[in-house]
């Protein structure tokens, strides 16, 4: 394992080195070495490419379509928050405002009780059917996570958290399915709100939010992160494939990563998913990105990425997947290595 870690520490990507030093080697965030590394991240070719569509006023094109996959402001900020971009960069404030203003717009938070799917689709806000808010909560979730991680905590973050808790379903998660028969939370719509509320809870210590986080985590834990409760069979084969980034999609690595961040990685019900992750380590070390959720061609098409996130395939190590896998295994007490 030492050889894999050393290889990542010699990566050309400062954000890969950051992930390993902070999340695996546990270097202190306020150390001068990490501060220097974060400054390197801000000036890296990767970050410059991600921000190439930023206007003079700091907002990111297309200004009115922050959710454009995967190069709208919503996704750019979520990416920066995940790769170690430093907190409090005032030049990002306009883009942060752009995203939060979008998801706190009445168009996306106005609730209305509906009896049918047809009525729900006619309502542009948050249709509520049988007491369940049908909302793509990953949108407000990512906005909250990015704002906090990038150092823009303000009153609007409290509002985002309040809405997420308000829309939480009885089983602990969230779902945007407008079918009245839908009565279980969605993995896709629950993981990101869980991640955001866990970070918010860590900062505020709000006990109501702590309980909300525990309820959301249970959506995954009672299914061992990928199994049906009834038959214990695999819910979705794609859940077992490794990716980076996941965006709003779900896989076991992203699920385990959030369990680690939220403090649930030691729950015995994570063990099966951890076993699967360990089994995917390559013979020469590291982990692959077995599939990807983005396109690297066709700038005008949905799902286009401004940059590549490394090799894809079952036989080649991907630095981003490997850095996250090491973090998860370290958090779970399954990583054995000697630090110099």
Structure characterization notes:
The chain is an all-alpha fold. It is built from 15 helices and 3 strands. Strands 1-2-3 form a 3-stranded mixed β-sheet. It is globular.
Spatial strand arrangement across the major sheet: 1-2-3
How many alpha or pi helices?
15
Order of helices and strands: HHHHHHHEHEEHHHHHHH
The amount of helix comes to 40-55%
Mean pLDDT: 95
Gap from first CA to last CA: 13 Å
By DSSP, the count of extended strands is: 3
Q: Describe the sheet with the most strands.
A: 3 strands, mixed
Characterize the quaternary organization of these chains: single chain
Q: Strand content of the residues, in percent?
A: under 5%
In short:
This protein has 340 residues and is mostly helical.
Keywords:
mainly alpha, 15 helices, 340 residues
Secondary structure elements and their pairing?
Elements: H1 2-9, H2 14-24, H3 32-42, H4 45-50, H5 73-82, H6 93-103, H7 106-109, E1 111-113, H8 117-122, E2 126-129, E3 132-133, H9 137-149, H10 155-166, H11 187-204, H12 207-221, H13 252-262, H14 271-279, H15 319-331
Parallel strand pairs: 1-2
Antiparallel strand pairs: 2-3
Helix pairs in contact: 2-3, 2-15, 5-9, 6-9, 9-10, 9-11, 11-12, 11-13, 13-15
